[in-house]
Amino acid sequence: MNPISAILNGFKQPMNLHSDLYKSPDDLRFRFTAHQLAQDYPLAEPVLDIGPPNKFAEDLGQCFNLYNIVSTSGNLNDYTWTPDKPLQPFGTVFCFEVLEHLMSPWMMLKRLQNFIYEGTSIYITYPRRMEMFWTHAHFHEYSKKRFRYMLRDLNYTIEDYNWWWYPPVEVKLGIRPLLRWTPLAMTRQQYYKIKI
Q1: How far apart, in whole angstroms, are the C-alpha atoms of residue 95 and residue 118?
Q2: Domain enclosing residue 8, as ranges
Q3: Among 35, 107, 124, 147, which residue carries the largest CB count within 10 Å?
Q4: What's the pLDDT tens digit per position in 105-115?
């Protein structure tokens, strides 16, 4: 059975990837993301992966036979970031767990329009929790309403949306760590497929 069939069949087959990375909630995040992407298989290349090179994008590339994945360089908060290779326009864009770290996600999504064409599929994921549970590196965790408003303002259309809960990454003692295991504070992973 190929990896894509394994994903669509409830993740019953082991995936032969960077195994150390996927024995935790990150494994669930990878499988959820791959399951969503599998619905659009095959994905158009070249692929622009927003952010520095990372194992998550490499493993998705291995899973979906994507050989032309390009990362970005420069500050994503301003209008100067660029793809590492000038292969534009890109057929697919990965933006996984990036927006919550940016002070200006609007600027990044606006600049992205310079590197895509009308049929480009853009896949975005980001966490959503109560503000008291944000980490020190998160500037934005958008509500569904606010995020959709930003997409409309930038003339993006939503093709698909999904979400899922996942448990905390580490177990600690205390009131806040205990609350993280309740639906009140668990991370709600948001998934969007958008086009211009």
Answers
A1: 17
A2: 3-195
A3: 124
A4: 888 899 999 99
